[in-house]
Amino acid sequence: MSEKKALPSDPLRTDLPSLSGGFAARKLTWSQRVVLGGRRARRRTTRLIVRVAVKAWDDSIFAKSAAAAFWQTLSLAPLLLGVLGSLGYVGGWFGPDTVQIVESKIISFSRDLFSSTVVSDLIEPTVQDVLGRGRGAVVSVGFVLSLWAGSSAMATFVDSIVEAHDQQDARHPVWQRIFALLLYVLFLVASVFILPLVALGPTLIGRVLPTAWRATGLRLLDFFYYPGVGLLLIVGLTTLYKLALHTSLPWHRLFNGALVAGVFFMAASEGLRRYLSWVTDTGVTYGALATPIAFLLFTYFLGFAVILGAEFNAAVQEFWPARATRMEQVKEWIANQLNSDTEEEPSAPDTPNPSDPKSNATPPPKDPLDTEPRTA
């Protein structure tokens, strides 16, 4: 009599040991393996989410997000001064109206992230005020001071990222503040060269395309423009996660946290815009404080998203530790070589001193019949 085949609707055989191999694993059908694998995946996902929530709560994510929002608000004008003021020196490389095009792109992109009141009452006047000063403001003492003020938000993010990975004691506090300033300057210089390419990219590509393909190519560029800009921002956030850590992780392991941060901020931004529009429609108003409060809420969720992504990366590292990067392996190898070279060699036996009569004295011969131990 032939054995009855297992059907997909049959319950899982709990009397079998596992799927690790052997006769028991071969008894499970393909559908049962899929169901069991799905249960394990859900269990691991639940554990990961719980761990991220616990770590974020223990690291005071709400307080740090509020601090990040405060410093981001104070850093807005210095940031725009640094970016748009520096563009005055390199804008001519990309075209005559580069600064104005970048300005329009910044405002249009801000409309997709923030509410209309924040853009019209806060971001647009700040951008126009910065552009009115001209590029001469970059070489002023105020610009140097603005670098320190603008790097305060970066310092908050660096502190939160290293604490999420339990590396808060790896750097000296003074050096970590200077390190945040250097990171801010690095990203500022990179943005000065990347922003014109992002703003003028569709126009430059449209000029290169043949006439027959130009219409189709421009439509594709318009369709993928904002997703491409979002991907570029996620890549930049991943780079921040990597550079902020003292003991770094592989770049691809940090990309997931940046993706989580990007998705969370986009969802929170959409919900906040709907909430602000509903508040405006109901007649509730904060008067002159409405725009700063709305901008603070947006920057709060931005800081929350960045810190949440760092906590996610740290939790993933706890569950599935990554191998050390090649740079870390090289550092460890050099440290081991230096430690092995500085180890003390075993000391040589004492050599007799010819000038010392005691050292030249020979011990008396031992009597072979004397087996009793000598007493002092």
Structural class: mainly alpha
> Gap between N and C termini, in Å?
94 Å
Radius of gyration: 32 Å
Low-confidence stretches: 18-25
Subcellular location: Cell membrane
GO cellular component, one term: plasma membrane
Pfam families: Virul_fac_BrkB
Keywords: Cell membrane, Membrane, Transmembrane, Transmembrane helix
Task: Give a written overview of the molecule.
The chain has two domains: 15-58; 59-318, no CATH class. Helices cover 73% and strands 0% of the residues. The termini are far apart. Helix 3 (61-90) crosses helix 7 (173-208), helix 4 crosses helix 7 and helix 9 runs antiparallel to helix 10 (290-319). It has helices at 22-27, 30-58, 61-90, 98-113, 116-133, 141-164, 173-208, 211-244, 251-282, 290-319, 326-342, 357-360. The chain is an all-alpha fold.
What's the arrangement of secondary structure elements?
Layout: H1 22-27, H2 30-58, H3 61-90, H4 98-113, H5 116-133, H6 141-164, H7 173-208, H8 211-244, H9 251-282, H10 290-319, H11 326-342, H12 357-360
